[in-house]
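Lesson 9: reading folded outputs for more than one chain in a single document. The general rule is that every protein is listed as its sequence immediately followed by its structure tokens, and records are never interleaved. Here is the first one.
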Amino acid sequence: MQTDDRYHFSKAYFLPWIGGEYGRCAGPKVLVFGDSHYCGCAPCVAADKCGVRGTGAGMTHDEMYSYMEDCVCFTRRIVSGYLRFRQGKAERDGLWMTGTYMSFEKIFLHRPFVSPEESVKLWNRIAFCNFLQTAISDSPDNRSYTDEDYAKSSPIASGIVEVLRPDVVIVWGRRAYDYWEIPGWEYTGLTEQDREKGDQGKYHLNDGAVVHVIRIDHPSRAHQAWWGEKLEEFLHHYREL
């Protein structure tokens, strides 16, 4: 499903990965929001020219998008490279990528080992993008991003959801989750503690369709077994809502 959909995602500076079976197979349509991109392109960082950072520096959206012509498929290239690695067709591109993505697979499938075949099947069924629509760091640490970076990325995230129309959204990490401003949000946690933390909820798309959302710890540092059970409970419960 990696088609020429730049028009539909015209507000996103990094186009989402969309698995070939997303929305075409049994089960819920799942969209996953990671946190941030790691690029560290020196000229862009020095000039604050990347995504929402660039528009903040005075460029229009179209100027920024044109400037990033070679970068808009960054997320897609990363996921594609990871899957080639999983199939033994490419070298590993960074410990952070394999550690984070492999950990997510174990959480999502709730098992301690995921085969390359299962990995490819999973990514083929989901959509994935990073919440932050700018890249200013080449190290896996979101502390270098500002509150404004997250705030400006929030409406873009909502726009991506409107286009992809998932049944379920899984958000990695509290910072992206807390900064995602969603009108008409309703908490749906299974326990009172969930409700207090606001880690589960639902909201309506512009046409009234319901999207169920859960926040999990970032896979790079999450307790895999605990979050695997939590996510399994959530996916089971969502079908009853």
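And here is the second record, again sequence then tokens.
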Amino acid sequence: MTRALVLFAHPCPESFSAALHTTVVDTLTERGWDVDDCDLNAEGFTPVLTEAERRGYHDEPENIGPVSDYVERVRTADALIMVFPVWNFGYPAILKGFLDRVFLPGVSFRLEEGKVKPNLTHIKRLAAVTTYGGTRTRAFLVGDPPRKCVTRAVWHVCRPQKMRYLALYDMNRASDTKRGGFLASVGREMREF
């Protein structure tokens, strides 16, 4: 059975991101996957890397102490699906903080002679489901940091066999039909993921 860690990062339960999150979780559950649904806001995850955590960042395995439960959830996942809106051309702070605090040396990567080596290679599938307020062109002009972070940085530490980046651009002007079409597309993608 595939175990999926779904990281959800939006504070409002009535948001379109919440609808996307529900679609992801429900579809994977219907497929018989073991879904670890991690709603970062609902769980009260603290995204701020403290001074003590930063000073002990490279001290393995003690560095995992403050976030050991989340580290265990990452370590037992076969798939990682991130559901989040793009705000100010980046991740919501709570998701960025999760990556800062949980994707630690000895967890998501190893440092060998100063080079980052992947350490989450048990994650065979990686996906992001996201929305952008602006157009794809606007995102492209600023380098589309969230896309690059998922498809390069997170991808690098996992080296998954399957990768999907599902984005609805121009959310600020999206009609009900466009949003519904994207929800349906996400459902199809998760059925085949």
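What the second record shows: DSSP finds seven helices and seven strands in the chain.
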